[in-house]
Structures are given as C-alpha cells and as structure tokens.
Amino acid sequence: MSASAPVLYSFRRCPYAIRARLALAASGLSVRVREVTLRNKPPELLRASPKGTVPVLVLAGGGVIDESLGIMRWALGQSDPDNWLRADAAETARLIAQNDGPFKHALDHYKYPDRYAGEGAAPSARRSAGMDILADLNARLIAGGGQLFGPAPTFADVALFPFVRQFAATDPDFWARAVPQPLQDWLAGHTGSARFHAVMARLAPWQPGEAEPLLTGG
Length: 218
Ligand SMILES: N[C@@H](CCC(=O)N[C@@H](CS)C(=O)NCC(=O)O)C(=O)O
Known about the structure:
It contains nine helices and five strands. The protein is globular. The two termini are 19 Å apart. By secondary structure, it is α+β, with helices and mostly antiparallel strands. The protein has a five-stranded mixed β-sheet. Helices cover 53% and strands 7% of the residues. The chain binds glutathione. Glutathione binds at residues 11, 14, 16, 38, 52-55, 67-69.
C-alpha cells in the first residue's frame, strides 16, 4: 500500500515544504518523504520538476505538483477534517500574496543582510517593512479571536506561520520585546503543536533504493 503512496520531495527547514507537509499531515493521507539536500538535488527530483525547488509531490499516477500551495490544495481537496478550506478564498489569497511576496522579500533581507548589502537599504528598514505586514496579521488575530479567520486555524494560518517563524528566529530578543502578544501567541501555538513537531522530525537525506519514511496524518 505504501508503495503506491505519493512521494514528497522535501527539505526540513524550508517554509514552503513545511506548509505542504502540514497540509498533507492534516489530510491524513500517507506520503513517502524524500528529504533533499538543496546543494545536491537527486536527479529523480529534477526529472519530476526541472525548476528544482521543493516541495514537489509526485502522485501515484505520475502527476506532479511542484508548488507548495498546490500541494496544500490537493491534500485538503482529498480530505480536510479540520476544515482549513472554510475561510474566505479572496482574503486568503490576499494574505498569501502579501506573505509570499513583500513579506518574504523583507524576511530575506532581514535574515541575510550581507547578501543584499549592495542594495543600500539598512536591515532595520527591512525589518520594519516586515513588521508593518505583521501588524496587519496581528489586527486580524485580535479581531478573529486568535487565528486569522476566527478562533481556529485555516489554510492561511498554516501557509503563513512557517515564514513568520523564520522572522522570529532571526532575532529572538527583538521578537520577544517588540512584537505584539497576540502574534507571539499565534506563532507559539502553531510551533508548539504535535503536528508541527511530527512534520519537523529529522530525516536523513534520501538515497535511491532506500525506503522512505511515511508522513502520516495527525
Ligand atoms: N513557489 C515555490 C517556492 C519553493 C522554494 O523556493 N523552495 C526553496 C527552498 S525553501 C527551494 O527549493 N529553493 C531552491 C534551491 O535553493 O536550490 C513553492 O511555493 O513551492
């Protein structure tokens, strides 16, 4: 049975891969996980998806989904026991576009200031660009009673928090000092969940011929 389970090419710390693994786990589907080293991508991954990003899901019938949001939608389209797809689609799309676009841009500049030193903007300016977006999220958390669309998580919470986690980890003292409590609580709730711990298990990089560990629901 597991031999027909879809294969997920993944990278443990990648926020795109984390959101995909969380949705797959929430759906309860069985998936074989191939942990990838980004500097040494397996040819099997590049054959399935030549653009060479993770996550990539290869379905039993040979279909390939090589975008994290597509993997999330596919998994939850099969089974969505926590009802993550219930939130307003247009507002969910707006929050994700804001996250994957300007927030990711600000995050990369804040996290890797040396890489972007030539562009001239100070890391503190990038951090404050990220903080402006986080203020928007925080207002939603207050209005919703803990999550972006009410008291329980939906697709957008899961799609966004792995990126906010990276922002928080860039300067934990700043995060604890300067970020509003609802946002801190929201992140801590997601990173403290049993499901998050399950999908963050450390896996050795996959080698051809090796059996893959299964990611199962929970
Ligand atoms: N839009 C893609 C982005 C995925 C992405 O950029 N993943 C990064 C790792 S976090 C990657 O694979 N980069 C290629 C590389 O570093 O070689 C998605 O949502 O799946």
